[in-house]
Amino acid sequence: MNDRFPPSRPGRRSVLAMLALTPVAGALAACATGGARQSTTAGTPTGAANAGNPFGVSSGAPLEVVVFDGGYGQEYIKVPVDLYRGKHAAAKITQSATQQIQQSLQPRFVAGDPPDVVNNSGSNAIDYGALVGDKALLSLTPLLTAPSWSDPAVTVGDTLRPGVVQVGTHDGQFVVLNYSYGAYGAWYSTSLFEEKGWTYPQTWDDYLGLCDKMATAGIAPWTYPGQFPYYMFWWLASLIYKAAGPEVIDKINKLEPNAWTDEQAVAALRAFEAIPANGWVLKGSSGLNHTDAQMQFLNGKAGFVPGGSWLENEMGDSVPKGFDMAICRAPSIGKDDVKPFGSLCAKAGEPYVIPRSAANTAGGLEFLRAMLSTEGAENFIAKAGTLSSNRNAKLPKDAKHGLVSIDAALKEAGDNVFGITVDTRDSRLWKDIANLMGRFMNGDIKADQLAKQAQSLTDKARG
């Protein structure tokens, strides 16, 4: 999954070929650079295009799909394979999985014979900067205007959740379909709140009052993974989004001047400054990793913990029965907030691409269309325990409490959803600003210092 582990910083166009010559890629890549097919031209459909076959797939053309063997497993891909086979029975479909995407597939990209569909995910994903710079990815724009698999009266684009196209757009081209959809922020236990008679507040003053009640009850209001302080990014950005609006978040994402130091953005950070200033962060949090911090939360030592959609599944049997965790919406800072309480940080993840030099690009587009069918998306939710980018897919009846809360929060948020893309734009900057947030949580720096230093780092990264 790419939800938490951003790819490395984008490289120059030559990076793709150069990396394929490294020892991890092996002798195959070395041979591939010596006169092998280097075409980046999309495969030509040979079948008849019609409403049921919008990309003109040749029914007998073989299709190869490679899936990242990560936290979502491989079970979810079986339904789209069956759907594709149902329409193109003569096609031989080869589906495999690996955790070594770069090592296995980068030589094939260079040789010009990549798979037709690639789930380019995980810590060993192929660098997107290299893929985009080499123009190695097929534009997925035709997918957006094609009739959806489950309802031909609706286009595929109309079935997508907010931000899916934006996150998958590089250099002005929609080239990455992110299949999962997650919410980010912080978590709390609804059963604990019911036991204590607490109500989750919508205003910041009431939120501080709740934190005081937690501390009085012997529960630290907050813990966080000090070893990975970027977890705080999503929550603090949520406060900024509500107080300052999407324009400021866009400036942060685009590494623009005066983004972090915007007056309303700093005001949001100053509001949260009360948490460490009052000693409301669990002692020792600075040394915790993500699962340690989450265990402190599950054990009732802290009322809130930052994290994304994966948290509930990640902790598995460690989640106490009846804990009933739910995603938090950041409280409104004041009456001048630009966005409503229901706003939410959310983003598509789990990227899929179609190589331009693949033999069956029409089949690749058709396979993505099958993945985004209602059947494929609902199967993904059931198997992976997270939402799909298809906004029409429903939850299974046995969906966990946290997932139900995310689905409800997204419905309430509507279009008031934003994402953070600094992680994919500049991973070093993401890490450096996250370290500042760790110091902020420890009380070592104040809000104004965080804003000024984050902007200084941004300006340096922009060059």
TrEMBL record:
Any Pfam family the entry gives: SBP_bac_1
Cellular-component GO terms for this entry: cell envelope
Extent of the signal sequence: 1-29
Alphabetized InterPro entries for the sequence: Bact_solute-bd_prot1 (IPR050490), Chitin_NgcE (IPR022386), SBP (IPR006059), TAT_signal (IPR006311)
Major subcellular site: other
Keyword entries, A-Z: Signal, Transport
Subcellular location: Cell envelope
Family from the record: Belongs to the bacterial solute-binding protein 1 family.
PANTHER family associated with the record: ARABINOSE-BINDING PROTEIN-RELATED (PTHR43649), SN-GLYCEROL-3-PHOSPHATE-BINDING PERIPLASMIC PROTEIN UGPB (PTHR43649:SF31)
Name the UniProt record assigns to this protein: Carbohydrate ABC transporter, N-acetylglucosamine/diacetylchitobiose-binding protein
Protein species of origin: Spongiactinospora rosea
